[in-house]
Amino acid sequence: MKFLIMALFFVGSTSFAKDLGSINLSEPPFWMPSYDEFHDLQGFQKDFYLSNFLVRVKALGLLKSPSKRELSEAAEWHEAWAQIRLQVYKTCLDEKNLRACEKLADVRLKTFELAENQKFENRRTRGVSEED
Amino acid sequence: MYFIPNLKDYCKTSTPCPRFRREVRMQGSGTIPGNKLLTYKGKTKELGNCKTAFGAAGVCLTPYISIAADPSKYSMGDIIEMPSIKGKKIKLPDGTSFKHPGYFIVQDSGGAIKGSNRFDFFTGSQGMYNERNQFGVKGDQDTQMVDKNDCSDRKKFTVIRRGSANYEQSLASINETQDYIQSQKRYVVASPLSGLGEQ
Fold first, then answer.
1. Which of B44, B120, B113, B53 minimizes the C-alpha distance to B80?
2. Is residue B31 classed as helix, strand or coil in its secondary structure?
3. d(CA A115, CA A37)
4. What are the distances in angstroms from CA B182 to CA B35, B49, B177?
5. Contact B59 A123 (CB under 8 A)
6. I want to staple B30 with a disulfide (CB 3.0 to 4.6 A). Which of A94, B24, B81, B98 is the partner?
7. In sequence order, what are the beta bridge partners of B103?
8. Is A37 within 8 Å of A46 (Cβ atoms)?
9. Tell me: the pLDDT tens digits for B33-82?
10. How many CB atoms lie within 10 A of CB B120?
């Protein structure tokens, strides 16, 4: 059933395959984490990413923005995540979407910030006060 | 270079002493008994299966292998190959050693680590001035990483992107090293004999 739902959701997405050649997902800019990068995150980081992704992705004007449920399912399924990611990357090829794409990429960066090293030098650069 | 101080290296009892707290404030966190982390805010966190800390990537950090990099330039899991370090003997605080695979893996980030050519090397529980820190100022000249202005040939590196053709092979080499370290079951928990040597 789960497979059927996801398959229906991504009907027509085969057209993305032809764009794959022009997009290098392993090189910056990283608009969205890969499934493996996402999968390694701690639970609280995943929750943060998914909730903020849903907010930001709406501004991107995807042909079919994933629903919360679809995104949650994709978070557990490599293929579905890759399809959403490819859709995002394809949309971000269009310069008129650059600002929205940068905001989406910021969600990824903020997700890492939640668990990054907090030595004094790093805190100072981030402008974190000692009382925070 | 960054590290997570271990209480055992600073205090005579299991209660965080002022010297340890000072270091935690500087380094952001420190390991305390019970496999927990004390943060600079005074909070404690469970470390789970980790012996040192989690990085931004959400996985346990491995001393002398894990590095922090700018996540806008690198994916977590990207590998940095540095041929000059390959095969170099790295001694851990408990006296055991391993041969460096010549690879580092991006598993953390930091506010001050910006740009494509900046990395912060995780050195376990040893600080820059600790004589047991192989990358520190008292480490072998071949393995020192401490001078930010040193851009000598031995620091040349290549990036192996996560998902690229030769990624799995490089990752296997890192995993092999990690397995070897873990098989010794000593990892980077400071030895009781290590003394109170942090500067």
1. B120
2. strand
3. 14
4. 16, 12, 9
5. no
6. B24
7. B81
8. no
9. 999 999 999 999 999 888 888 999 999 999 999 999 999 999 999 999 99
10. 21
Count how many Cα atoms sit within 13 Å of the Cα of residue A45 in the half-sphere of its side chain.
22
What string of H, E and C letters represents the secondary structure of B109-126? CCCCCCCCCCCEEECCCC
- Inter-residue contact B27 to B34 (CB < 8 Å): no
Locus of tokens 């600790």: B130
- Residue identified by tokens 């590196």 is B157
Residue A19, Cα to own-chain centre: how many angstroms?
18
CA distance B40 to chain A (A): 8
Q: What is the pLDDT of residues B143-174, one digit of tens each?
A: 766 666 666 677 789 999 998 989 999 999 99
CB contact under 8 A, A36 and B29: no
Q: Which amino acid is at B104?
A: F
Q: Which two tokens stand for residue A118?
A: 């907090």
Measure the CA–CA gap between A35 and B105, rounded to whole angstroms: 17
Pairing of strands B66-68, B120-121: antiparallel
Q: What global pTM score does this model have?
A: 0.86
- ipTM of this predicted complex? 0.86
The answer to whether A117 and B68 have CB atoms below 8 angstroms apart is yes
As a whole number of Å, the CA-based R_g of chain B is: 16
Which candidate from A34, A112, A128 shows the least CB-CB separation from B162? A34
What is the crossing angle of helices A98-113 and A78-91, to 10°? 140
- b vs e for A34-68, b when ≥16 Cβ sit within 10 Å of the residue's Cβ? bbebbebbbeebbebbbebbbebbeebeeeebbee
Nearest residue to B58 (alpha-carbon basis) of A24, B118, B49: B49
